[in-house]
Amino acid sequence: MKVTVGHLYPDYLNIYADRGNIAVLTERARLRGHELAVVPIGVGDAVPGGIDLFYVGGGQDREQALVSHDLAGKGDALRAAVDAGAAFLAVCGGYQLLGRFYRDRSGEELPGIGLLPLHTVAGERRMIGDVLLDCGWAGETLAGFENHAGRTSLDEGAEPLGRVVAGFGNDGRSGFEGCRQGRVYGTYLHGPLLPRNPWFADRLLADALGVELEPLDDALEAQAHAVSAERARSRGGRF
Ligand code: GLN
Q1: Average pLDDT over residues 73-82
Q2: Is the shortest distance between the CB of 127 and ligand 1 below 6 Å?
Q3: pLDDT tens readout for residues 107-124
Q4: What does the alpha-carbon distance between residue 165 and residue 75 come to, in Å, rounded to a whole number?
Q5: Of all atoms in ligand 1, which is nearest to the CA of residue 150?
Q6: Which CA distances in Å does 116 have to 71, 95, 157?
Q7: In this structure, is the dihedral angle defined by the CA atoms of residues 206, 209, 215 and 220, taken in order, positive or negative?
Q8: Are strands 118-135 and 101-103 parallel, antiparallel or unpaired?
């Protein structure tokens, strides 16, 4: 099978090697005999049809301001694609713009596309460090790295991606991180995220392909996860 990934703003939203997530998806699809194609979707580009999985990385307030109005203009097409079954992974600055808005450190309100039931307001102190999440819905944990000024508030009844075991998460207070709604996942976890969390990469691929995937030998990935998780436990969530 072929899976097509729509990579939003690869030139603007790509800090902490977030594009590494695409490399992991490509390799894990290839190891199962599936082909993965990446379609960059930039400022001024229309949202093409036939996208199985959308991906957007993180970025500083400046880069978010450069793309947010263009993204808002793509909102209808992206919501329609998700309603038609496409999956979506959004990291940090991209995650914030999947909500209703992000009020940045200058106080400017950047429009989001309202694909996730949340909004974000930047605070004074950045929340930086290793993070460990308990994702009870999948019986798994996620380990990664966060660096954000934004404090994200989920709407009543919204599903977080995970419970914070170590780290700040959405706002440093709620005890939750990220948000998930159907096949749409938002998170503050950089790293990049997927090399040390192969189960989540497979979850995205399975959502995008609509098939279950046979397991791979993830011994090395498990070691990377364990190291990251231990770092989070020993120093995550401290200003
Ligand atoms: N600029 C946003 C914030 O500071 C997102 C940062 C990021 O993507 N790492 O919260």
Answers
A1: 98
A2: no
A3: 999 999 999 999 999 999
A4: 33
A5: 10
A6: 14, 9, 12
A7: negative
A8: parallel
